[in-house]
Amino acid sequence: MSRERETEMTTTSTREMRTMPESPAAEKRAAGFRGHVASLASKVPGPLVGLVVIFVALSFLSPYFLTPRNLLNILTQISAIGIMSVGALLVIIIGGIDLSVGAVLALSMMSMGWLYSYAEWPFEAALPAGLVVGALIGLLNGVLATYGKLQPFIATLATMSAAAGLAVFVTGGNPVTGFPEWFLALTTMSIAGLPIQGVILVLIFGIAAFWLRFRPTGRSLYAIGGNEEVARLSGIPIRRIKLAVYTIAGLLAAVAGLLVTSRLDSAQPTAGGSDLLNVIAVVVIGGASLAGGSGSLLGTFVGLLIIGVLNNGMSLLNVSPNLQPVVLGAVIVAAVMTDRRASRAQSGH
Amino acid sequence: MDAQHPALLTEEATRTDASTGLVCTGLTKIYGGIAVVNQVDISLTPGTVVGLVGENGAGKSTTSSMIAGMVQPDSGSMTIDGEAYEPRSPADALRAGVALIHQEIRMIPDLSVAENIFLGRLPLRRGVVDRAKIEEESAHVLSLLGSRIDPRRPVRGLSIASQQEIEIARALTRAPRYVIFDEPSASLGESETARVFDQIDVLRTNGVGIVYISHKLDEITRVADSIICLRDGRRVADWSTTGVAKDDIVRAMVGRDFTYGHSTPTEHGAAIALEVRDLSREGAFEGVNFTVNQGEILGIAGLIGAGRTEMVRTIAGSDRATSGQILVAGEPRTIRRPADSISAGIAMVPEDRKSQGLNLDRPGADNMTLPWEKHLAQHGLVTQRVLDRVAREQREFLDIRGRTDIPVRHLSGGNQQKVLLGKWLIKRPDVLILDEPTRGVDVGAKMTIYETIRRLAAEGVAVIVVSSELEEVLGLSHRVLVMAAGRQQGVIDRDQATPEAVMRLALRGHADTDSES
């Protein structure tokens, strides 16, 4: 779990630890019952509490909220944002930022649409080509940020602008429609009662979480974001890993674009325009620090659910769509402020 | 000259007669329970130069920081002309007429020379900076120093020596009565240093009292009227400059009682583990040649800035060599990055554990496994079991007291250092480089670290220890390599490596290599 998310419960245990005599016996005692409870408590992410509160409140406020249909509906609504936020989290852990996600989503879906409908490629070839376009732009982000020594903010701002422009340019601003049936089925069918796109979302979260937790390369992302010089002196191939992370982020944006295309049966050149804010909001509410070195997929998933549940609930309650971003802004501020208070309490100030 | 800046050349003579000077009595500063400055008395008469000498960490800089108001003493008092002088900040000190000229020059490169000189107190005229005024006054002060720098040009592109002059000029515009020079010549060549001395002479004849801190004994004896030697925070000796022998100063600087009772290290092997040939890195060090055998401990001594850290960093691939060869077990290795040296069997514990050694927000176990996760992974996975096992092994081997599953930030300095050492021992290296292995650790942890170093050497690891503590280098090593001014000055065997012998080599700069013969 994210360190910054360790709440007051852990704070007490850390304090105890510091004042305790550092003898093996005392250590064992600390690792005993109370330490166990504290460490369990620390595994509950702070945002989870917020999610539960919102969830319970909405169950009372709207009779439709707590129906299986609505809950599955939420899962499909958040899948595209969720897939992109996995990539965004990885980039943020290494201390970077990717502003180009929404534009990459649009460009990869338009490339796929153009190849299929204008260049008349078979769809089986156009689809992977769209994914490759996303990955390549991610790779370009990585190259600019490492070999080009640009700040990631600037590098991805540039690619965001370029990709968004190209997405409109390829078809002259026209949307592409008429995709094969099986492709549209991706977002209409279910496996064992779960929508396929929801399954894909959970699968991507699972794989990424596994990579971050258990694989040497995934684990080194925290080292790079936490202190790049320490990671370098430890022999970690920093540039290679950064390139990989930005490429993954681009690829995941393309995957999200694919799902959006399938859902709408249409590749829209202006799709993804408002996704960037949501994606970063998800990661930040999930407890990752933009300074790098911290963040977890569990936290990000909770952040994703908070945004999904909030947006869904506000629609059910007939809150004006123009006001919804205002609420989102308030939630971001509240989440980060509690976060900071928790980490400040932890460091004893 | 303006009334705001009393002329340097007029009223000084009278001041000298009336003044009893700046008197410090019993200055003491305690950090973490250790008195880094302990009951130091210094009195500074206007128109004289006091040289302050001492080893690294003897308390020279802390003493000067207290006098200049950057640090407040824990006890002791200071007076100027009999009146209490208690500066709470450098600004206070300047108001009382005390200026410090920093070792490191801090300039804003794109501002003009004059603007840099008046930075923080630029005079305004109708709401904008009065350039004419600052340029005129800067030109006046610079000419007093015999400098020909144009006050209107930007600082960018000026040599270090010129920037040093600007730094002195900046102090002079405050019309100080006392000036402290903290190793002004550290980055200057001989002719440039001579110019600083001329400037000091100008100040001295104008009745300014000066404290001059330097490692270079030739300089001190040339410029100072009297010399004070600090050792372990105490004033241990003083001389008037006339007729003092350099050997006496050296002896006073190093002559402390050794506290650790180092035992003679075990006999080392005959096979060469590491050989360095003509290793150079432009601007840092050049022409370093040495070998380390298996099981041998090679100490590297020298003063701060001698190029020791730069040299070992290059061997470890942290920086790139500009020329030279590195051979591990007789085989030449190309070392361009840390990964290269790690795979060649070289491990380095860097000097700054906070910025180079550890990620303080990560648990100790994760910090230790970082370089080795590919080797430690079972079926490609680094599980909690693996982390726990590795952490347990290192905790036992190094006697790490404290948990390794919480951020290392919460551990004591000694335990942090042990975690850092453990990080580089998980896969036993053939060559282990330790840069300041006991900096900022308590005595208990120090003993454990020394013990571990000896144990590793006995196992056959070639160890290189860089340390500013003479006792550490001399106590641990089979041989000691001494560096000064970016060059290797000699290698001394254990039985000849007395503190005096090492210090004599360490004090040798380019300027005075001949004076030793």
CATH architecture of chain A: Orthogonal Bundle
Poorly predicted runs of 5 or more residues of chain B: 1-16, 510-517
Shape of chain A: globular
User: Over the alpha carbons, how many angstroms does the gyration radius of chain B reach?
Assistant: 26 Å
Domain unit count of chain A:
1
SS content category of chain A? mainly alpha
How many angstroms separate the termini of chain B? Answer: 50 Å
Number of domains of chain B: 3
Sheet of most strands of chain B: 6 strands, mixed
Task: Give the distance, in angstroms, between the N- and C-terminal Cα atoms of chain A.
Answer: 22 Å
Strand-residue proportion of chain A: under 5%
Class derived from helix and strand content of chain B: alpha/beta
How many separate helices of chain A?
Answer: 16
Q: Secondary-structure element order of chain A, as H and E?
A: HHHHHHHHEHEEHHHHEHHH
The main sheet of chain A orders its strands as 1-4
Give the helix level of chain B as a range of percent. Answer: 25-40%
Task: Going across the biggest sheet of chain B, name each strand in turn.
Answer: 6-9-10-3-11-12
Instruction: Report the total helices of chain B.
Output: 19
What's the CATH class label of the largest domain in chain B?
Alpha Beta
Notes on the structure:
The complex is a heterodimer of chains A (349) and B (517). Chain A has 349 residues and is mostly helical. Chain A has 16 helices and four strands. Chain A has helices spanning 8-19, 24-30, 33-43, 46-61, 68-93, 101-117, 123-146, 152-169, 181-185, 196-214, 216-226, 228-233, 238-264, 275-285, 297-316, 324-347; strands spanning 176-177, 190-191, 194-195, 266-267. In chain A, the strands form two sheets. In chain A, strands 1-4 form a two-stranded antiparallel ribbon. The relative contact order of chain A is 0.18. By secondary structure, chain B is an alpha/beta fold. Chain B has three domains: 12-254, P-loop containing nucleotide triphosphate hydrolases (Rossmann fold); 259-345 and 429-512, Rossmann fold (3-Layer(aba) Sandwich), CATH 3.40.50.300; 354-428, no CATH class. In chain B, the strands form five sheets. Chain B has a six-stranded mixed beta sheet with strand order 6-9-10-3-11-12, sandwiched between helices. A six-stranded mixed beta sheet of chain B has the order 18-19-20-15-21-22, sandwiched between helices. Chain B has a four-stranded antiparallel beta sheet with strand order 2-1-4-5, with helices on one face. Classes of the chains: A mainly alpha (349), B alpha/beta (517).
